[in-house]
Design goal:
It is a single chain. A hairpin with a 2-residue loop joins strand 1 and strand 2. The protein has one domain. It contains twelve helices and two strands; from the N terminus they run αααααααααααββα. Helices cover 75% and strands 2% of the residues.
């Protein structure tokens, strides 16, 4: 299979159209509202408790608290945007029109996954930007752990989108794809990791275990940290999961017929 410049141009067009479709849809608004509400709630927490900001978020508690639900936020984003992007084309029969155009399936697939990733990154980046502002106001600095977490969460968005695309590429109903995507990322991976751990092995290679490094869990001198060794391993595991699931999703998509 030869890849030409026009293939990338077609992928770009598909990605742009996919992003436009998301922006015009209710999922985009719903996810934006959810992310905004979460940020507002964490920011309003000191006032709800009748405390000052420093009393609630002092001693390095801003990052662990504000990012405590980041794992779930990414999963919800992947469920909303990536889980139906392939299967909906077959369910709504729009692929019948799309496949008659002079465009390769590979270009369609690349455009769709890129569009999903960009939308997910947009919301999470805006949330992290808000956290950065809070850090600057309260602590007067943005620690390295913030950037470690940001880097890991961006890789997790990519890997979660890969898993979602794989599920979307093999199922026939978008509703089932969304439910299975959510439970796979939120529960099934964790259940498998628990079984592996119970058997006496370290499930470090599981996607959910790598994603646990998004939020600092260790403390040094009272400040939350993410060890660099954990960062490198987690990023590598998530990258491998992305490559593996994306390749499988692509193979399923190019071979799929009505």
């Amino acid at each position: 299979m030869y890849v030409e410049f026009d293939d990338f141009r077609q992928s770009y067009v598909v990605a742009v159209n996919e992003i436009r479709k998301f922006i015009r849809g209710k999922k985009f608004l719903a996810y934006g509202v959810m992310v905004t509400i979460m940020f507002i709630l964490w920011t309003a927490l000191p006032f709800l408790l009748g405390e000052s900001f420093n009393e609630t978020y002092g001693e390095g508690r801003i990052i662990p608290i504000y990012l405590s639900f980041m794992f779930l936020m990414v999963i919800i984003g992947a469920t909303l945007f990536a889980s139906s992007t392939i299967v909906s084309e077959y369910e709504e029969r729009t692929a019948l029109v799309l496949f008659t155009r002079p465009i390769k399936k590979t270009s369609i697939f690349l455009g769709k996954i890129v569009g999903c990733i960009i939308v997910g990154v947009l919301f999470i980046a805006l949330y992290y930007l808000g956290v950065a502002v809070i850090l600057q106001i309260v602590d007067g600095r943005i620690p390295n752990e913030f950037f470690k977490s940001l880097g890991l969460v961006l890789v997790y968005i990519v890997s979660a989108s890969g898993v979602s695309m794989l599920i979307s590429s093999v199922l026939k109903k978008s509703s089932i794809s969304a439910v299975l995507t959510f439970f796979t990322l939120a529960m099934i991976f964790s259940m498998v990791s628990f079984v592996i751990s119970t058997a006496g092995f370290d499930p470090w290679f599981m996607l959910d275990q790598a994603a646990h490094e998004l939020v600092p869990s260790a403390f040094v001198d009272g400040y939350p940290v993410i060890p660099m060794l954990h960062v490198g391993r987690a990023a590598g595991v998530m990258a491998i999961w992305f490559v593996a699931t994306t390749v499988l999703a692509w193979l399923a998509f190019i071979k799929r017929e009505f």
